[in-house]
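To assess whether the prediction recovers the assembly geometry, we first specified each molecular entity separately, as shown.
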Amino acid sequence: MSGRIRLGMVGGGQGAFIGAVHRIAARLDDQYELVAGSFSSDPDRARASASALHVAPDRAYGSWQAMAAAEAGRPDGVEVVSVVTPNHLHADPAIAFLNAGIHVICDKPLCHTLDAARELERAAKASRALFALTHNYTGYPLVRQARTMVAEGAIGTVRIVQVEYPQDWLTTSLESTGQKQAAWRTDPARSGAAGSVGDIGTHAFNLAEFVTGQRVGSLAADLAAFVPGRRLDDNAHMLLRFDGGARGMLWCSQVAPGNENALRLRVYGEFGGLEWAQEQPNLLVHTPFAEAPRMIRRGGAGASFIAAQASRIPAGHPEGYLEAFAQLYRDFADQIVAVREGRPPDPMSRLVPGIEEGMRGMRFIEAAVSSGQAGAGWVSLG
Amino acid sequence: MSGRIRLGMVGGGQGAFIGAVHRIAARLDDQYELVAGSFSSDPDRARASASALHVAPDRAYGSWQAMAAAEAGRPDGVEVVSVVTPNHLHADPAIAFLNAGIHVICDKPLCHTLDAARELERAAKASRALFALTHNYTGYPLVRQARTMVAEGAIGTVRIVQVEYPQDWLTTSLESTGQKQAAWRTDPARSGAAGSVGDIGTHAFNLAEFVTGQRVGSLAADLAAFVPGRRLDDNAHMLLRFDGGARGMLWCSQVAPGNENALRLRVYGEFGGLEWAQEQPNLLVHTPFAEAPRMIRRGGAGASFIAAQASRIPAGHPEGYLEAFAQLYRDFADQIVAVREGRPPDPMSRLVPGIEEGMRGMRFIEAAVSSGQAGAGWVSLG
Amino acid sequence: MSGRIRLGMVGGGQGAFIGAVHRIAARLDDQYELVAGSFSSDPDRARASASALHVAPDRAYGSWQAMAAAEAGRPDGVEVVSVVTPNHLHADPAIAFLNAGIHVICDKPLCHTLDAARELERAAKASRALFALTHNYTGYPLVRQARTMVAEGAIGTVRIVQVEYPQDWLTTSLESTGQKQAAWRTDPARSGAAGSVGDIGTHAFNLAEFVTGQRVGSLAADLAAFVPGRRLDDNAHMLLRFDGGARGMLWCSQVAPGNENALRLRVYGEFGGLEWAQEQPNLLVHTPFAEAPRMIRRGGAGASFIAAQASRIPAGHPEGYLEAFAQLYRDFADQIVAVREGRPPDPMSRLVPGIEEGMRGMRFIEAAVSSGQAGAGWVSLG
Amino acid sequence: MSGRIRLGMVGGGQGAFIGAVHRIAARLDDQYELVAGSFSSDPDRARASASALHVAPDRAYGSWQAMAAAEAGRPDGVEVVSVVTPNHLHADPAIAFLNAGIHVICDKPLCHTLDAARELERAAKASRALFALTHNYTGYPLVRQARTMVAEGAIGTVRIVQVEYPQDWLTTSLESTGQKQAAWRTDPARSGAAGSVGDIGTHAFNLAEFVTGQRVGSLAADLAAFVPGRRLDDNAHMLLRFDGGARGMLWCSQVAPGNENALRLRVYGEFGGLEWAQEQPNLLVHTPFAEAPRMIRRGGAGASFIAAQASRIPAGHPEGYLEAFAQLYRDFADQIVAVREGRPPDPMSRLVPGIEEGMRGMRFIEAAVSSGQAGAGWVSLG
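The predicted structure of the complete assembly is given in tokenized form:
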């Protein structure tokens, strides 16, 4: 690669959580350089953010529209933008940059309504530019290994899928205190029709489909808003039926005290099982039927080539969330450079979720909300 | 207590698993003496079992009918019998002994059909004799502590209940090999209308109601028989709605490789959570919201009086399944002796599940099977 | 076995901890019947204990001397006695019963002085009666499996042995409060020359030798009494050199807050390792070099015949301390019955520690104390 | 901070492990820019490395001498260099850059001989430039919290320190295969007088002193080289006596199969304990005496300000080795910028280990080797 990829950012000004994560992820493997941004709709915050981020003042824009226009016209304009705004502000900038031929990395979920998602899908398909969606848990080495093991038949046909993502930070009415992260996530106008289902249920759903290689055909969802006054679900229980014959459960919650980001997947097939938990991401438990369970550790014996490729340091030195997030940036960099160079990308780089996974997530949200409204009746994901 | 309680046994001949467990449980605290039994319908096995168990030859009966008749007429006849036969052979002997004024300890589930269960319920209510059902997991000290903590408001109103009981021993068609335990459990004639739901789902259900103090009002169940040719469910996924407002999930499976008896309960309330797992029974994790999680260990700091009462040895020396099972025997002994002595039993001894819990389990099985047949529609537990 | 073994007990009156454990252990497998005892030097307590334990009044003795004399003369006299008194009261009764041809089960350590130990050793060797020492951790199924795996070369020649037994119950001066267990254990007159080293260090030492099959040739011990005013060590750190070339460390402590009975052994050889912890006794971790670690669970895949033989219930239903303790009683029962029947005992029954292990423990205590007094210089165990 | 700190690197060419780690660490928080390097003594590898690392060709030097001379003369010359060569090549370049007024970040241990260390110490004290030593485990948020808790008396006076760092990668004679990392680490000429003791024992030692705030006064070390033909220790067992009265043990090993980087510290005081393990770095177990153990999680309840300051992302999203390493770079950046700006550095930034910790490590190595040669006699650390 002859030079770093020129990166812009929409959102992610000072105080935002996920913007900072994207920037570290972009920086970790040294393949990107942040050169422009519309970090905030507040001009002062935008300017201060740019300065702190070593972005030149003339490339610190007051709006993504201005940024798209100006950058598209520069010979040294951004090659890719990261969209890290709240859900309702994903689709419009993403479409604009795609239309301008600029690659897009978009935070999940894809956006806040299925209609907007469809427009974005059209734009992504029409554009020659690439689109990535940061379902970041797919960047963990042992998640990728689990996917490969399932695909290669290590546990036989998958029968059972248990996936869950409990948190506890919305156990009380945090949104009433003015806390920003809580405020937009519990507001239908900004978050969309779902609360916990959109925010973390989509991660669980994506992880289940990613690892099993099966698609959820239909679901029955019992949604609840336990905290008085809350307008969106803060807990959801779902039955899942997969198109390959597996059955499963999905639980997401933001009101389960003691749980931080306890995303966990268990998959059982005809002759084995696999278990992985986000809070112990360097371990994959493989349970071949009638054999002693094996602890596969990132970088250790039993870890595969695919896991090694998504790793930076030797076994026993824990990698975490940022490294997994960075893996998506690293893989997407290969896709971008492949376009630059007119070569096919490394096959592994295609593991980065894209518009298709984004649309799956939107259908999942819609199905879960519909089912919830219908008393947990079965709804097809189409 | 002036003398040991005279105990008889129905079933439990050589080679049976649960009969041996009941005998150890009865022996552990030295409050029972096994003096009679109809251990097997095969006379040779019955005799050999009696001899190995130090039961006098004249009290080794060829049938429970003969045993009931003879023992009821002896001044030193059995005061209590343990019924440890397969499900379809619970109700008749239990009714006979209750009618004879002899206390009954019955293995779970109560029996194989709701009709038989109703007859047994009538007999139990009509008899002056006592009835206990060995939902043995309620005998674990920290399960009892969890129940007490919930009742005393330690976690506030319960919102979420996650309970599961996965096993793996039926991952393949073990019943085809002639294995006895597998054969009767997968046979509708002997096991009843449910497979995994009756065998282990009932334990999970009982545990959830025991600890939360809430009753499941309705459920939606997706039952599957994954192993080709199997006639009863070997996996079930359920949504639960509790009468106190909680929502939950129940998963039971006998085809989840790597799981032995991985019964696990997690309960979350307005301001805290509790987690307990049968395979690590000496630990109860308490997660007060916005505080560091606490590891409450049996016998250790934070363990309550109720847990200590159900314990035999100090902290750090693990107790297990047999001790928990024995606890039900110990508690029921107090009930029996209280009758002897015309005094009220120790309140804690009332924690032993009885006919009511048995009927709850039968309604649970019926509801789950109905729901499963109706494509996982909601069914009330009445 | 035609009848239960007639058992007597020395010590173990009401309120004692270890006496109750021995009785449960004796009862668990129904091979013993407690028929006599000198439970306490206090006549009232002795009588009350006997009554609570269903021992006939005429066989509740006021002293072990009286018991030995009377029982040796009865045709139905005790065949074996359990000695469960404090350390300084082990040797005399044990010698007396051995001299009377009555088998002895003695709690550990063997006794309080090396001189007394030598006398006891002589008596044991001279007697036709058998002697067992309850280093109970050797009764755990997976400890026995570990020993077998090492012996069979599963990890190659052992290089490294890390063993530890931390507790916390003496973190403060509990003995000053009058607590009985603390009082005798911190009193040189009753406990012997060592505190934690004798009480729990001996268990760790015994476990290390039992599993590795190597003997400690010499040690260097740093003993400390951290609690002001305490006369015996409450913490000890040791370097170990084994006669087979292994090197190791032993740590025992009674002042390590948060530790209950955290006995743990790790053994590493040329091509693999084994890890076991008493508080999770149903798990043995096997770490073959350059392979994924394997979780061997009691009763599960990978568990051997030897483990199964020391087990009572299936995998996933945890067994604990009492079952392991009972295993020694079960094995010793086989030895006793073999004598009765004039046949050789089952080879597995020889795993019960005896006088030789008791003498090893005494030499360990002496060496540790000598080394400690000499500023942790090396001392040979002879 | 107005611009990124200009960083150079000595060593760390393609294929090196620790150089890549240092670069990621430098990049993570975006406070450094790598602008120069003498990455390898092989000119082709040096050039290729520079190109891959976006370093201008004219600042890719063939030797650190050339680099020191040239960079010291440039107005835009490096402000700091990272020395990431094998141990025997630490001191000379570090001294040269310090003499040139350029700050130095040096990998541990300080160097390969005590004489060289003393020279480096003199240079560091004489220079106005700063010196940092990457004992990277001190960068973990919960290690810092542990240190603070001890300092604030949360567990009382420390009595017991158990520290260990087992690995398994040298279980066989990897150095014989030509593996580079193994080759220099087992070669006295490049590694110094110690093997495992210098490579990882120093980390364990540093961690123990860092957290307890006590210094090791003397030690007794039993060193072994288990692999035939190996010239340096691959396993060491030590007794420790601290100047504040604590006693401890240190175990380091590179031949313990199943262990990757299992650095673990346990500290027990008069009224509590703390436990931390590098492979689960987001958890600190606090065991106040006579209370239930508390699980303090990075970012969660119970995590202190000091931990938060060394953290980047919220609780439940695991951070790992790279983030901890980056923390030292971040802190050292503050020290460097404080010099630039003529202000005192943030007090927390002083947590970065420096020359003093380096000298402690060298004395530790020397003492351990001396003790080992003297049959594990006590040696003072002076």
